[in-house]
Amino acid sequence: MNELSHVDESGSVRMVDVGAKPLSRRRAVARGEVRMSPDTARQLRELPKGDALTTAQLAGIMAAKRTSELIPLCHPLPLSHVGVELEVHEDRVAITGVAETTAQTGVEMEALTAVTVAALTVYDMAKAIDKAMVIGEVTLVEKTKEVVV
Q: What order of strands is seen across the sheet that includes strand 134-147?
């Protein structure tokens, strides 16, 4: 693919017309991380269950559901599943986001949005104790499509 999908022949931006495409079961998985000091990671691990990481998980899920409101040319999608998992490691929080739908276009942006907003929420929760955190490596790691018959 050598052309930008959201730009027409004259160079104007446009929403892609997916009306003629068949319905497909679609799934996308994205990953990202928030790098931090080992002390910050330790403090996050020691919090009672349901605090910062659950807040970030819920923020990611809520963001995926609102992707079309945040990214101007994304189609609103009927999401059948959104999952966000956060795992605290020695010096980072690893985040995985999964989005699924049966629709005429993919859910990559929803999975990426879920991971990004979850990462921003972790950052927000820990910024008072770690000014050097870095959000990074948000990437799409899987994308599948099965035509619905």
A: 79-88, 92-103, 24-35, 134-147
Which residue among 8, 39, 51, 124 is the active-site one? 124
First to last CA, the chain: 27
Counting beta carbons within 10 angstroms of the beta carbon of residue 126, is it exposed (0 to 12), middle (13 to 18) or buried (19 or more)?
A: buried
Cβ atoms of 110 and 99 closer than 8 Å: yes
Domains parsed from the chain with CATH numbers: 24-147 (3.30.70.640)
| Cα–Cα dist 49/90, whole Å | 18
pTM for this prediction? 0.89
| Alpha-carbon distances, residue 5 vs 17, 19, 103, 106, 134 (angstroms) | 10, 15, 18, 13, 31
| Count of helix runs (H) and strand runs (E) in the chain | 4, 4
Rounded CA gap, 17 and 80, in Å? 22
Per-residue pLDDT tens over the stretch 91-121: 999 999 999 999 988 899 999 999 999 999 9
Look up 124 and say whether it is catalytic. yes
